[in-house]
Structure formats: C-alpha cells, structure tokens
Amino acid sequence: MPSPPVTQPTPEHILHRLDWQVVRRLDGLLQGDYRTLFYGAGVDFADLREYQPEDDARHIDWNVTARMDTPYVREYFEDRELTAWMLLDRSPSMSFGPEERTKSRVLTEVVTALARLLTRRGNRVGAILYNNAVERTIPPRGGRMQVLRLARDLLQPPPHSATATDLSGLIQTGLNTIKRRSLVFLVSDFLSTPGWERPLPLLCRRHDVVAIRIWDPREVELPDAGVIVMQDSETGEQLLVDTSDPHLRRRIADLTRSREERLAAGFRRAGVDPFAISTEDDLVAALVRMAGQRKRRFR
Does domain 11-40+79-220+271-297 have CATH number 3.40.50.410? Predict the structure, then answer.
C-alpha cells in the first residue's frame, strides 16, 4: 500500500509542538547556557585588560598592544537585549531528504525554535529568505506573532529557480541590510557555486555569526539501490545511474570528501566554527550541543 501523503503543518501547530517538545525541554537542559548560546560580545566599550589564552583574537586592541608591547583586549558591557537575524537558504537542494523530514523542514524547525527562545527573553528576530534572489526581508521584531510569521513564511514554497545556488548573494545581502552589530544565524546546506566564502569574513567582523549546516546522510554516502534515475534538484538535469557500480560509488565518495575539505577550509578562513544538524538528529540534543560548542568558544 502506498504511504499516505505528508500533510503540511500550520505555523500554530509547529510552534505549539516545538514549545512542548523542544523549548520546554531546553529550559531544563540549557539553564545558564542560554547566555553562551545567544549572547556574544556587546557593543559598548567597558575596559582594557591583558590578553589571556583562549580570548577571542578579534577583540585585541592593536593600537594599545603596539604601545604597551603586550597584547591587550577590549571588554564590552554585555548586551541585555539583542537583535538576531536569520539568513536562510531556500534553494532547491534544501528540499532533499526524507519526505517527512527534508532539509527544508529541519530548517523551519531550527529557525522557529531559535526565534521562540530568543523572543521569550525580549529579543528581536528578523530574517532574510533567499533562493538565488531575496524572496523577502522580515524586519526584526519581538513577540510570539513574529515567530508565527517566520514559520508561516518558511512553510510557503520558495519561488522556482533553475540555476545553481550562489550563497554569496545571501551573505552580501546580510552585509548591506544589517547595520547594527547583531547575532546572525546563517542556515544553509552550503551547496553553492564557489566564491560564497569570500564575503563571509567581513560578515564575521561586523557581527557574531553562527553558521548552521543542514545536511542529510544520503548526500555523503550513495546507497546501493541498483539502476535509478537521479535528478539535480537545482538545474533539473536527470541522469540514469547504476548505484551498484563500485567505481561510481568510489568516485562519488572522493567528490564528497573533496567538497567537505573545501567547505571546512572556507569556514576556517572566515574564522567560523560551523554547526551541523542532520535530518536524522534530535533537535533538542542538537541545540544543546550548539550551546556547548559556543560556550567553549567564548571561554
């Protein structure tokens, strides 16, 4: 018997489910780690002190360091309220994954959960939705209605695009749009034409950037399914493939490894520690791991 079609949830249903299954559980698990998950450096200068191991090198005051012949870092008053921006990749490759939990569905859940956590503490959240062109820009606001608007817009299918994704347009739009220092979540599968990493270092210098990579295990290991028709989700090109061919499987593994190395190098040059969430991950466990990763970074 064919499996029943997957019904499209409403924004209210998504928010209600995440409130009970994710946000309430995180309240007990994260506790004090909320600050390390959401609050980066402030914007108001407080004082100077000598550099300590594991301090963020971006806070070194090079003028004072040159005069004192000892590294000094700037300290800032912590922001009690912040503005967060979501830079969201809605390209066709995000539709890949199990029908009931595609990468796009995971993106919607991650963004809705983060927005809910942020707005509950009086912060504002905005978003830029992108599919090789800016679909829409949602100005930062607080409150439950803003979270529902984000979920509603993400549930709408993106406009058709038949060209390969270029994420540099999304990052450049973020640079042009976000004027005040903010917490920026860049959420994508990072399947893009080369060059997307060039504007990323500038975005990181201006803002506290969290890169969240959404991926599916079937993207990195081709299953042995015999002869199948594969389609490029972005260009629509179709190809008949014998997945049982060991030479093909080895070549795809090599290409995947090369892509992972280029991706890691791009993040490393930008000074970003990416966080990966799989379509098979438990969202609560993933967000707790993210909090732990950021906590280690800001020690």
Answer: yes
